[in-house]
Amino acid sequence: MVPMQDPFTGQSPDAGQQIQHKSICRGADIGNRESRKQITGVEMKSVVSVLAVLSLFNLVACVEVMDKDDLKGEVVVKEIRNLVIDEPYFLVDGDFVPARRLTNKPNAEMALLGDRQTYALSVDVLTFTDKGVLFTMGQDVRISARVLESQNGWITTFPADHEARLVADGVSGGNISLQVERASGSLNLVMQGERGGVGLTGGDPHPSMDGKSFPLPRPMNGFGCTQPKEGAPGGLGARGGISGSAHIEILDGEGFVLNAKASPGLGGRGGPGGAGGRYCMGSHKRGPSGATGPVGAEGTVQTICVKRGSRELQCK
Fold first, then answer.
1. CB neighbours of 53 closer than 8 A, spacing ≥ 6?
2. Distance from C-alpha of 141 to C-alpha of 122, rounded to nearest angstrom
3. Which of 141, 195, 222, 309 falls between 20 and 30 A from 209, CA-CA?
4. What is the per-residue pLDDT across 152-171, written as a single tens digit (0 to 9) for each?
5. How far apart are CA 162 and CA 34, in angstroms?
6. Ramachandran category for residue 58: left, alpha or beta (phi over 0 → left; psi -120 to 50 → alpha)
7. Residues 6+ apart with CB under 8 A from 175
């Protein structure tokens, strides 16, 4: 397998400070049994999430649960033999979930909330079909593969219509590291921040916005009503998330096509305008609603670095 390196320092996990960890294995026994510690309730939650991944693919794998004080939330899934991405998959709480198995449409609750998690996968053969898409949902993902075969598949951060919660800024696209011994075909990699949340709805109408009644001039009888005022404008959309960064290393990829792009998270849509004032004489009819609020600011763009064979690392 390709040795896993930190995409930002270039060091292997063994470089520098050593991280003590425990192993829980299925179908294999790794490490010194005497060095294993009892798993805490917090760590067990991570173990359950990872085992769900393994049961989904029915593959032999090992899970390393890092000590909470050394590296919070680190989950390592390794020795996955063959992984085929042939439809949209979402990384949710450590599980790769096919879109068809999602109870609800992907929403802001699936995006990263709180501390970012790092998921490292070591795969023998990783295959993407032309319908295969892997959404990382703002997490840090490190993939090491001996063979990558892609028929114009996709690795990206969020679906195009995904947006943050109401008035919340979009989260980062996270960091993706892809290290491959041999690659063939073509792969699309898109780093993009989450779209910002929608702005607030314009404020509630005030009685002063209602139309005013006035007596009609003779010879007409009755009363007329002035035009009620327009509603308050909607609020500013939230800021889009930063694109996130990517680091790709391919040892042997003659003819392999990589289309990599980083884009800022779009600014959130402006909030809808508030309701207009009422017409006179107890009418339920209202004046025009307020204007839609302005779109939020875009996020910023980070770098994508690619290294092929013995060539120098190229970053843009």
1. 77, 94, 95, 96
2. 11
3. 222
4. 999 999 998 899 999 999 99
5. 47
6. left
7. 7, 8, 140, 141, 244, 245, 246, 247
Instruction: Report the distance separating Cα 134 and Cα 78, nearest Å.
Output: 18
pLDDT at 142 over 80: yes
Query: Which residues lie below 8 Å from residue 255, measured CB to CB, with a gap of 6+?
Result: 184
> Is omega for the bond preceding 219 within 30 degrees of 0, making it cis?
yes
CB 95 within 8 A of CB 45: no
Q: Give the model's pLDDT for residue 181.
A: 97
Quick check: helix, strand or coil at residue 192? strand
The structure tokens listed for 291 are: 């204007």
Q: Half-sphere exposure of 279 toward its Cβ, with a 13 Å CA cutoff?
A: 10
Q: Which positions ≥6 away from 212 have C-beta within 8 Å?
A: 225, 226, 280
How many CB atoms lie under 10 A from the CB of residue 316? 10
Q: What angle do CA 79, 80, 81 make, to 5 degrees?
A: 105
d(CA 234, CA 182): 52
